[in-house]
Design brief:
Rossmann fold; six-stranded mixed β-sheet; 2 domains; alpha/beta
Length: 388
């Protein structure tokens, strides 16, 4: 098939590569730098599997930055443009998705359109009513940052929001590209598929918030957080995974998806959904307060990203902690090789690790690494398992 994938972030690029194993894929992005990188078989994002795949695999993939060229003649168009929660509208800002749908209607009205961007519950049906000549499906993604292609090649499940023959064809396309051939494929209405996405990520946020509040209790009571977590997680119903304390959840998905689900709960009774959002804010304020208990003038921030070996610091919890410290007149230094600017969030970025260590009264690290061993006495972290 001739497939166009729009938006070359983690979701879009991972899907483009997966489908390019057996199809003719056009990758469309408005960024010339991303387009050039992909055509030169270089990854514009940090993901080892994507980097290796682009370099080594025999795939039919071409990247373009012209909409007409991207869509004309496409049998299927996958939309993976970014959406974000808009607090003023109390909903996701879906303008990028809506703009792409209008372009598809103009250049490829016969194409099957699959929305993979995260959207509010009910969005796809709304677009179906607005664009009645288009075939619109919704298929959520469940990708880990830095493992996006791996999670597409070995999917936990494939969810397709559509109960039509086109939906079945798309589900089979995704399974055809996967290495794991026995992944369950679930077909449902687009609205139910949208709910699956938001409830899945909110449950993950709930798990993060739970173990963070456990850790807060242990810290305040001078208890060993690691021992408590290990004891709790030996129960197979709970499981020893996704349980490493942090400064709070962040990244591309969890902050915006939890707030969107909370917005979708308007006029629906709830306690937990609202509490999950509030718990993350409480955790960040607690971390800042614990740091301020120490006598410090200069705090060093060791990397902004949420995860080890990642370069994304979107909605990273440490950013708000930095803001809290600055309000209390603490000087902030940043050490992060992934940051190319000399200043970020109005704080200097140091390139020399030795200088960073010597100038910092305390080193704040959401995730620790071996290079911090020599200054262990300076490090403040809640990372007890040295893993994400």
């Amino acid at each position: 098939m001739k497939i166009t994938v729009t938006g070359m972030g983690y979701v879009g690029l991972a899907n483009a590569l997966l489908l390019a194993r057996h199809n003719d894929v056009t990758a469309y992005d408005i960024s010339p730098d991303k387009v050039d990188a992909i055509n030169n078989r270089q990854s514009p994002i940090r993901d080892r599997e994507i980097e290796d795949f682009l370099k080594d695999e025999e795939i039919v993939l071409c990247a373009v930055s012209d909409a007409e060229k991207a869509y004309t003649g496409a049998d299927c168009v996958i939309i993976a443009t970014p959406t974000d929660y808009d607090p003023d509208r109390n909903f996701f800002n879906t303008s990028s998705v809506e703009s792409v749908i209008r372009d598809i209607e103009r250049f490829a009205p016969a194409a099957v359109v699959v929305i993979k961007s995260t959207v509010p519950v009910g969005f796809t049906e709304k677009m179906r009513r607005r664009h009645q000549g288009l075939t619109l499906l919704f298929s959520p993604e469940f990708l880990r940052e830095g493992k996006a292609l791996y999670d597409n090649l070995y999917p936990s499940r494939i969810i397709v929001g559509g109960l039509t023959p086109e939906a079945m064809v798309f589900g089979n396309l995704m399974l055809q590209g996967a290495v794991k051939k026995d992944a369950p494929v679930c077909y449902m209405s687009p609205t139910e598929a949208e709910a699956v996405k938001l409830f899945s990520n909110t449950f993950l946020a709930l798990r993060v918030a739970f173990f963070n509040e456990l850790d807060t209790y242990a810290e305040m009571k001078s208890l060993d957080s690691k021992s408590i977590i290990e004891g709790v997680c030996l129960d197979p119903r709970i499981g020893n995974y996704y349980n490493n304390p942090s400064f709070g959840y962040g990244g591309y998905c969890l902050p915006k998806d939890t707030r969107q689900l909370k917005a979708n709960y308007r006029h629906v009774p709830n306690n937990l959904i609202t509490a999950i959002v509030e718990a993350n804010q409480t955790r960040k304020l607690h971390i800042a307060a614990m740091i301020m208990r120490k006598e410090i003038k200069t705090a060093g921030i060791y990397k902004l990203a949420m995860k080890t070996d990642a370069d994304n610091f979107r909605s990273s919890a440490v950013i708000e902690i930095m803001e809290q410290l600055k309000r209390r007149h603490v000087s902030i230094l940043v050490f992060d090789p992934a940051v190319k600017e000399d200043r970020i969030f109005d704080c200097p970025v140091l390139r020399d690790f030795e200088e960073f260590k010597s100038r910092s009264d305390i080193i704040i690290a959401n995730r620790v690494s071996a290079e911090l061993i020599g200054v262990k006495n300076k490090v403040y972290t809640r990372d007890v398992f040295s893993r994400d």
